[in-house]
Amino acid sequence: MGVADSGVQPRVGHNTLPDAERLWTDILEYVKPRVSREGFETWLTPTRGCALSNGTLEVEVPNSFFADWLSQHYSAEVRAALASVSQQELSVSFRPRDSMDTSMLIRRAPARRPAARQNGYRLQPHLSFENFVVGESNRLAVAAARSVAERPGVNYNPLFIYGGVGLGKTHLAQAIGNLALGTKPSLKVYYTAADDLFLELIQAIEKNTRIEFKNKYRGLDLLLLDDIHYLVGKERLQEEVFYIFNSLHDAGSQIVFTSDRPPQDIPALEGRLASRLGSGLVVDIQAPELETRIAILKQKAAADHAELPDDVAYFIAARVRTSVRALEGSWIRLLALASLDGRAITVALAEEALRNLVKEEEPVDHNRIIKACADHFGVALKDITNGGRTKQLALARQVAMYLLRGTLSLSLKEIGGLFGNKDHTTVMHAIKRVGDLRTSDPVFAAKLEKLSKGISRGEPG
Ligand code: ADP
Ligand code: MG
Question: Is residue 461 scored above 60 in pLDDT?
Answer without folding.
Answer: no
